[in-house]
Amino acid sequence: MLYLSLKVLHLLAVISWMAGMLYMPRLFVYHHGAAVGGDASETFKIMERKLAKLIMRPALVVMWLAGLALIWVQGHNVLTDIWLITKLLAVVGMTSVHMMYLRFIRAFEADERPKTGRYFRVLNEVPTLLMILVLIMVVFKPGL
Question: In principle, which of 13, 41, 81, 98 could form an S-S bond with 62, CB 3.0–4.6 Å?
Fold first, then answer.
């Protein structure tokens, strides 16, 4: 029962986090196109800040804690399961992208335009590709 409860918690957190990870770059694209100091720019600042603090950050923390608890409950030796190592590396990469988003939020808060709109459109694909890698590792468990 503990395992299944942790799995549900982990999946709920992953879904919430991924929603933010996929939506935030779109906000950046639109924010980049908004006039500095204008109403739209100020609205995007609020949207970005709330998405990051109220949804993405808590989901990230719960995802990591529940995921590590799942590993512990199952008794996995992280050094022997190639699929799990690959998954964890992809999640570390996605967490790094999350941290990058926070730097962009701070830059937009300061009315800077840190990158181009095209950059943010391309950045939107990174979490998608990492998510695909994670799903492949979890479903097929290559190396077992």
Answer: 13
Whole-Å CA distances, 6 to 1, 23, 65, 101, 118:
9, 26, 9, 27, 38
pLDDT (0 to 100) of residue 51: 98
Q: Which of 53, 32, 42, 24 is nearest to 123 (CA)?
A: 24
Composition of the chain by helix, strand, coil, percent to 5: 85, 0, 15
The pair of three-digit structure tokens given for residue 122, joined into one six-digit string: 């391309």
Predicted pLDDT of residue 6: 98
- Output the DSSP codes for 33-95: HSPTTSHHHHHHHHHHHHIIIIIIHHHHHHHHHHHHHHHHHHT--TTT-HHHHHHHHHHHHHH
The helix (run of H) or strand (run of E) holding residue 143 is: none
Per-residue DSSP letter, 110: T
| Rounded-to-integer distance, Cα 70 and Cα 2, Å | 9
User: Is 0.90 topped by the overall pTM?
Assistant: yes
pLDDT tens for 52-88 read: 999 999 999 999 999 999 999 988 777 789 999 999 9
- Over 80: is that where the pLDDT of 144 sits? no
